[in-house]
Amino acid sequence: MSKQILVLPGDGIGPEIMAEAVKVLQLANEKYNLAFELSYDELGGAAIDKYGVPLADETLERARQADAILLGAVGGPKWDTIDPAIRPERGLLKIRSQLGLFGNLRPALLYPQLAAASTLKPEVVAGLDILIVRELTGGIYFGAPRGTETLANGERKAYDTLPYSESEIRRIAKVGFDMAMVRNKKLCSVDKANVLASSQLWRAVVEEVAKDYPQVELSHMYVDNAAMQLVRAPKQFDVIVTDNMFGDILSDEASMLTGSIGMLPSASLDANNKGMYEPCHGSAPDIAGKGIANPLATILSVSMMLRYSFAETAAADAIEQAVSLVLDQGLRTGDIWSEGCTKVGTREMGDAVVAALRNL
Ligand code: NAD
């Protein structure tokens, strides 16, 4: 039976990087008889232009029916001044929450070929392989009440709310422990339990879940310390599990340890491993339309999709190997370029991965 993949290229560099990822996916589809059928729709700014809202009801329905979703990136200056309730990013938050995609997996893996691209010393980052598990549908990005009001004295005041229920914490903690079990069996739970009530509950529930995973070595760390440790000695981490906002910030920080945000894929999974797969970066309006964006994060998102939603391990491994071979050839987009390498554009990089995959 065929499997339906909904492709949402999005805004800015989204369509450029997605075109390359789809080429790789189509080749994997043929080579490994995956029986994938692709359909396309819009999300974010492109959806505002087409439907008047960042996530149309029919798009959401298509996403519900699909077996997996591949997303580029959303947002851009064109939509920065519109009503905040229909900003492009609202479409992204809505599709994640409506599909129950609560578990965000963000690997930060340093390809040995790119050790020079990191701003940290090679000995600090060489061999780095961290997985950040970020809670994605709760916490301060969704909490109510939120808003801005004008006080009696005319001063404006704004507020957000950071709620977490026990069940929300338990299910993401389990994802963290499950991932640690298939990796190096070390889990660090990051919170701010010295200040926040939601973090105190977080820590207590993580401790409870830990009883089911006696082989996993659990530690707790405050988020400010975790931010520091990530640049001081990042290799101390195996899996990090944390809330929505802390995970947002720490995963961007971890991405820079690897040289470029343009290398990092991500998966957002529901309780049944149905997922949406997207690069960690945004729509990069500063380089959109120039044909220079790095498509590898999106191509590696395809490989995560094959691995986590479809258990097509051979095809997933082959895509990752093809990416590594292309880096061995010295091909680099501008964001990961260093002296002695060959600078290529988005399409050349995609074509090189396709050629490497074809020859495997
Ligand atoms: P960004 O990730 O788009 O860009 C940050 C920097 O990284 C820029 O200099 C950009 O050129 C560079 N960069 C990002 N991806 C790259 C790639 N593949 N190749 C080469 N360089 C790359 O973050 P930003 O500038 O803060 O945000 C731009 C827009 O993207 C905003 O509208 C923001 O809301 C949106 N955004 C969307 C997502 C998403 O769709 N998941 C995530 C973050 C930001």
From TrEMBL:
Q: Which NCBIfam families match?
A: leuB (TIGR00169)
Query: What is this protein identified as?
Result: 3-isopropylmalate dehydrogenase
Name the SMART domains for this protein: Iso_dh
Catalysed reaction, written as an equation: (2R,3S)-3-isopropylmalate + NAD(+) = 4-methyl-2-oxopentanoate + CO2 + NADH
Q: Which UniProt keywords apply?
A: Amino-acid biosynthesis, Branched-chain amino acid biosynthesis, Cytoplasm, Leucine biosynthesis, Magnesium, Manganese, Metal-binding, NAD, Oxidoreductase
Q: EC no.?
A: 1.1.1.85
Keyword Oxidoreductase: yes or no? yes
Q: Which family does it belong to?
A: Belongs to the isocitrate and isopropylmalate dehydrogenases family. LeuB type 1 subfamily.
> Which GO biological process annotations does it have?
L-leucine biosynthetic process
Ranges where the Isopropylmalate dehydrogenase-like domain occurs: 4-353
Assembly notes:
Homodimer.
Q: Where does substrate bind?
A: R96, R106, R134, D224
Record keywords: Magnesium included? yes
Annotated site location: Important for catalysis: Y141, K192
Question: Which InterPro entries does the entry mention?
Answer: IsoCit/isopropylmalate_DH_CS (IPR019818), IsoPropMal-DH-like_dom (IPR024084), Isopropylmalate_DH (IPR004429)
